[in-house]
Amino acid sequence: xxxxxxxKKLTKKxxxxxxxxxxxxxxxxxxxxxxxxxxFCASMTPxxxxxxxxxxxxxxxxxxxxxxxxTEGIFGAIIQGIAISMEEQKAGGENVTxxxxxxxxxxxxxxxxxxxxxxxxxxxxxxxxxxxLPFASRGSAMGGIMPLILYPLxxxxxxxxxxxxxxxxxxxxxxxxxxxxxxxxxxxTANVIGLTMMGALSASYVSLxxxxxxxxxxxxxxxxxxxxxxxxxxxxxxxxxxxxxFYLKKKxxxxxxxxxxVVIISxxxxxxxxx
Amino acid sequence: xxxxxxxxxxxxxxxxxRLRFGYTFSSMLLQxxxxxxxxxxxxxxxxxxxxxxxxxxxxxxxxxxxxGGNVPSDPALAGCIAIPLGVLSNMSPEIAIAxxxxxxxxxxxxxxxxxxxxxIWVHMADKYAEQANTKGILRAAFIYPxxxxxxxxxxxxxxxxxxxxxAVEKLIAVIPEWxxxxxxxxxxxxxxxxxxxxxxxxxxxxxxxxxxIGFFATMYLSLDTMAVAIFATCVALLLNLFKLKxxxx
Lengths: 275, 249
Fold this sequence. Notes:
The structure holds 2 protein chains of 2 kinds. Chain A is mainly alpha-helical. Chain A has 11 helices and 2 strands. In chain A, helix 2 packs parallel to helix 4. The chains are: A mainly alpha, B mainly alpha.
């Protein structure tokens, strides 16, 4: 078989440019119909324009990347990297089918979204906000400025590493990411830090106490809060967190129902003097 | 700063932060602590602005971490309305938080509207792909959703901030004592929601003792957040060490 000779080589810059387009718009054009497909296609435009010279080829490639796609935007960069390397091989005359490219993309978007959600959103973001929250509570602007700088900085560095890794290693990059014990231990570490921080913040910011006192005819009286405090300090705030937590676990994410319940309970408690 | 200008700038801020330009950058931009910085700069009252922002942040701390990008509550709409109104009428943070909650719920519907209209641009992009028009695809992915977002989002915040200050001041003057107290209780309990959501998202039952450790480390030893973060990191790293050893052995 005759191979095409004028293979256009992509540069590191092209790939980084593709990363920036995806980073800039991963949520911007998100629609119920095809979620991130539009921005994925948009992020491939500089690559595809360079690889395919005829309008027919370019149009086919663009359409290939407009099909349903959705993942976590930071870890998803690795999928972009792999898709770019596959397109490059295809344009170079190798036998890479449309189905192979689409298959890789749709096959990887789920597992990587799971990983990205666990690390980037459930752990890194709340941890960064929490560390600087005490500044905000004291009225300092640093409480907002530091997370605004650090969160994008850290996540963009991760994206940058992953897209180039995906491009140069292809499919192998994901195999090592998914099966190496490294990712597991990163998630474990992030979860331990995250949960400990949430506990510490709950202790400082959830406040709930009861003024209830029972007086007896003998002249003695029982102050309920004092009894609770002798058992352990902060039992009521701790109970509040865990009651909501178990409700979420059992019934699902009905945040507005919980908000409304808190409003009603607060009003009843204020009127009856329980809290 | 006069109210008209403030209302216009808050409307712009809400639009821009919710535009989601820059994946993780914009998601931080729409957090109440960051909105607090913006309102603080505009009004000159950084202290109160950040305090209200911090209080609101606690309520919405976990909301960002829900998978799939579906917002169950909109911290940006809550913050862009409650923080400026709270600062201008000199509210206590608890009351500002209570005021913010309904707007957070309203924001969910606004986002559904945006994601539904965004489907139009995908169809437009299908046509551009047919014509191999890469510039058209970039326009459909960035420019059109931005314009539609502005039409959907700007007017809400602008109108409520502009007309709200008067209304809120009158409202506060007539709030009875018991209602004030229930706002205080609410302000104390609501942060529990943020923590409970994060707890549920991380969700591993066998890791819950770490939450308890963090809680009582603060209660009994009064450690500050940074200290807890440092100790937690060390403990996590050490546990990894032992776990790896077990697996090798």
